[in-house]
Amino acid sequence: MTLIQSIVLGIVQGIAEFLPISSSGHLAILQYYFGINEGNLFYSIMLHLSTGLAVIIVLRKDIIELIKAFFNVIINLFRKKKSRLNGKYERLLILLIIATIPTALIGLLFKDFFEQAYTSLNSIGIALIITGILLFVSERFSSSNIKIEKMSLLKGAIVGIFQGLAIMPGISRSGSTIVGSLFMGLNKKDAARFSFLLSIPAIFGAAVLEIFTLSSGDIYINFNIIIAMIISFIFGIISIKVLLELIQKGKLVFFSIYVWILGIIIIIIN
User: Fold this and answer.
1) Residue 76 burial (C-beta neighbours within 10 Å; 0-12, 13-18, 19+)
2) Which residues in 147-185 are b (16+ Cβ under 10 Å) and which e?
3) What are the b/e assignments for 239-253, b being 16+ CB within 10 Å?
4) How far apart are the C-alpha atoms of 11 and 199, rounded to whole Å?
5) Domain ranges, residue 166
6) Beta carbons of 31 and 40 less than 8 angstroms apart
7) Which of 41, 170, 198, 268 can pair with 25 through a Cys bridge, CB separation 3.0 to 4.6 Å?
8) Where would I find the H helices in the chain?
C-alpha cells in the first residue's frame, strides 16, 4: 500500500466513520479499486481505533462522567445501597450497556455473512441505498423531542439493533444509530450524542475481537499505517463536530442523496 493510498484511506475513514455515509462501505470500495488485497483487516482495525480515539477526545467530559457513574454503581453494589440509576449519567451508562448487547449478538451470530458482503460491491451499493432511505425517512417521521435520560431501556435496545445492522458494509453505523434514536423519539442533539458514545464499545470491542483472529504475520505497523491513523484521527474529530452542527439544522437529507448516488454508481459499474 502506497503512502498516497494510506492518506486517502485515512481521510475517508475519518470523515465517513461519523458522517452517516458508511466508513466500512467506503473503505471496501477504495480497497477494491486500489487493488489492496493483503493486510486489509488489520489496516481497517487500526483506522477504526484512531477514529474511536477521536470520539473519546471530543466527548471526554461525558466519558469522564460515565466512568464516575460506573464506579458509583459498583461501590453502591458492594455497600448494598440502592444505586441512583435515575441519575443522568447512571441512566446513560445503563442505556449504553443495553444498546451494546444486541449489537454484539448480531455481530457474533452473523459475522461470516457480513464478512462475505465485503467482497460484493453490488451488496455494498444496495446497502448504501438503504442507508439513504433510512436517513430520508428519519428526517420526516421522527418526533425528536425526548431527552436521552428519559429514553426507556427497551428503546435503547432497539437503537442497539439498528447499530447491529450497520455491521453490513454500506449501512452507516452513525446513520443507523442516529436514525434509530430519532425513531425512538430522541431530540436531534441527543441522538447524535448517543450515537457517538455508542460507537466507543462497538469500535473497540470489534477491534479486540478481530485482532485475536489475526495471525502474527497479519499484524504489522509501518510508516504508512501511522500516517493514515493520524489523518483518520484528525478528520474524525472534524466530522463529529460537523455532524453535530448539521443534524441540528435537519441536513441529513443531503447525506441520503450522496449515498443514493454512490450506491447507484457502484451497482451500475459492477
Assistant:
1) middle
2) ebeebeeebbbbbbbbbbbbbbbbbbbbbbbbbbbbbbb
3) bbeebbebbeeeebe
4) 19
5) 3-269
6) yes
7) 170
8) 3-16, 23-34, 40-58, 60-78, 88-109, 111-117, 121-141, 153-165, 173-183, 188-213, 223-248, 252-269
**Matching residue, cell 425512538:** 184
| Highest mean pLDDT of the ranges 16-25, 80-89, 161-170, 257-266 | 257-266
What total number of domains does the chain contain? 1
Q: What is the pLDDT of residue 181?
A: 92
Does 101 score more than 90 pLDDT? yes
Which residues, at least 6 apart from 233, have a Cβ–Cβ distance to it below 8 Å?
14, 50, 51, 53, 54
Contacts 24+ apart (CB under 8 A), 113-119: 114/167, 114/168, 114/169, 117/168, 117/169, 117/170, 118/24, 118/28, 118/169
- C-alpha distances (whole Å) from 78 to each of 11, 181, 237 are 46, 33, 38
**What nine digits make up the cell of 48?**
477504526
d(CA 112, CA 213) in angstroms, rounded, equals: 13
Return the C-alpha cell found at 106.
Answer: 448480531
In a 10 Å sphere around its CB, with 0-12 CB exposed, 13-18 middle and 19+ buried, how is residue 268 labelled?
A: exposed
Q: What is the mean pLDDT of residues 90-102?
A: 93
